[in-house]
Specification:
Blueprint lengths: L1 H38 L3 H8 L7 H18 L1 H9 L7 H34 L9 H14 L11 H10 L1 H6 L3 H9 L4 H38 L10 H45 L9 H16 L16 E6 L5 E10 L3 E10 L7 E8 L5 E3 L5 E2 L2 E2 L4 E2 L2 E8 L4 E10 L1
Antiparallel strand pairs: 1-4, 2-3, 3-10, 4-9, 5-10, 6-7, 6-10, 8-9
Length: 426
């Protein structure tokens, strides 16, 4: 058994050991201690029924049974999580009622969070921290819970608390950075350092442990209830004996494990948030992009475009993003408007170059740019010739000359503007 554990640890890491194997071992112990005696079945008889070969010893049969249940439970991890989140039954009557209940809780926590934010701002602005209400610390705690307990959008709320906690951190990267976490998380996971990956694995293993304990406790409660009803008539004195209490205890254990899974999911979600906060630019570099980002608004527009390209790679007329910031940088507003540019250079007398840049609104959704600014890097050893900047043959004054910054004004869908300027070797 020790050699098996060492092999298993090397192949699947400790998440399958802690998250799946240990709950299965506890489940087998509960079955052997409670269910089998209640059903009047010996372990040897049960394994003779399950396996076709002769059982000289219980150890091989028990080991095989534990392995089979472990791998089945591990393979069903995602379906079980979705079941506990409420996806399969969210459109049922129970799911609709539970979703409305969760929505009421989300609105209440949002009101508490808004109140805590207002009090905090007033205390900082007016320096009246001593006048804060006595329950202010409780308000801050509830405010923190609101951020991690529910997704931002009300339409994303699920029927269960666990589902909403997971939805909250699944949507964190999209709300803050415009990143589609579902599409880009597998790629980000490959760029994480070893220590961060181990922290994520530990958090996920703790969550799996509590979730699997809840699942197996429900199965054990069902087994105890079935054995009790079959082996003991309900109207005998034994009906008030141990097995109804045991069923209730396993049901209570399932619920407590579910509450533990909610807590562990929040910790797991925090690790996911940290991964996006600290390593999203490593992902950007790993995808091949070397674009210079000037601020959060531009970063969000870039991630939204990348997420869209991964989500709809076969979309018609999809304009690919440049892999790096070139000599010509286009700054549209809003930033999600897609522009394209064509650049040409001609030589003139006296070591003068005439540069022509044609900018086109190539947005596939035909969105207009309210304004467009172009920033052109000037090569080392050159300077912009005074009064040489023209926009559609009309002389304009640049905002700066190194780099050359010129406002092009608004640009409607499929429209183009041409910028011409001259540089001279110095």
């Amino acid at each position: 058994m020790t050699s098996f554990l060492n092999t298993l640890s090397g192949q699947f890491a400790k998440n399958i050991l802690m998250g799946t194997l240990f709950p299965v071992v506890l489940f087998v112990i509960a079955m052997a201690a409670v269910v089998l005696p209640l059903a009047g079945i010996t372990p040897h008889a049960m394994f003779e029924t399950l396996f076709l070969w002769d059982q000289d010893s219980l150890v091989p049969a028990l080991t095989t049974f534990v392995l089979v249940v472990t791998f089945v439970l591990f393979a069903l991890n995602i379906p079980l999580i979705r079941l506990y989140e409420g996806y399969p039954w969210q459109n049922s009557l129970l799911g609709q009622w539970s979703t409305k209940r969760q929505l009421r809780r989300a609105n209440l926590l949002k009101q508490i969070r808004d109140r805590a934010r207002i009090l905090t701002r007033q205390a900082r602005e007016k320096d009246v921290s001593n006048a804060l209400p006595d329950d202010f610390s409780d308000l801050l705690n509830l405010s923190g819970r609101a951020r991690s307990a529910f997704p931002v959008r009300e339409t994303s709320i699920l029927p269960t608390r666990l589902g909403n906690v997971i939805r909250a951190f699944e949507g964190y990267a999209n709300v803050k950075y415009g990143i589609d976490a579902i599409m880009l998380w597998p790629r980000l996971a490959e760029k994480l350092p070893k220590d961060t990956s181990e922290s994520l694995d530990s958090a996920k293993a703790s969550f799996d442990f509590m979730l699997n304990c809840s699942v197996l406790s429900i199965l054990t409660a069902a087994a105890v209830l079935t054995a009790g009803l079959v082996r003991h008539h309900p109207f005998t004195s034994s009906y008030l004996g141990g097995w109804p209490v045991q069923t209730a205890c396993f049901c209570a254990l399932a619920y407590l494990s579910y509450l533990g899974a909610i807590n562990r999911a929040a910790s797991w979600g925090m690790e996911v948030k940290v991964a996006f906060d600290l390593y999203r630019f490593d992902l950007l570099t790993g995808l091949g992009y070397k674009t210079e980002i000037s601020g959060p608004v531009e970063e969000r527009a870039l991630w939204e475009q990348i997420s869209f390209q991964f989500l709809y790679p076969d979309a018609p007329n999809l304009t690919p993003l440049p892999y790096k910031t070139g000599q010509t940088e286009l700054r549209p507003f809003p930033l999600y408007v897609v522009l394209s540019s064509e650049r040409s250079v001609t030589w003139e007398a006296n070591q003068i170059q005439a540069v022509t840049i044609k900018v086109t609104n190539a947005d596939q959704f035909r969105r207009s740019a309210q304004s467009v600014t172009i920033a052109e890097k000037i090569a080392k050893g050159f300077r912009v010739v005074p009064n040489s900047v023209e926009l559609d043959t009309v002389q304009v004054a640049p905002r700066a000359t190194d780099p050359l910054v010129v406002g092009l004004g608004p640009l409607s869908p499929a429209a183009s503007k041409s910028l011409i300027y001259k540089v001279q070797r110095i």
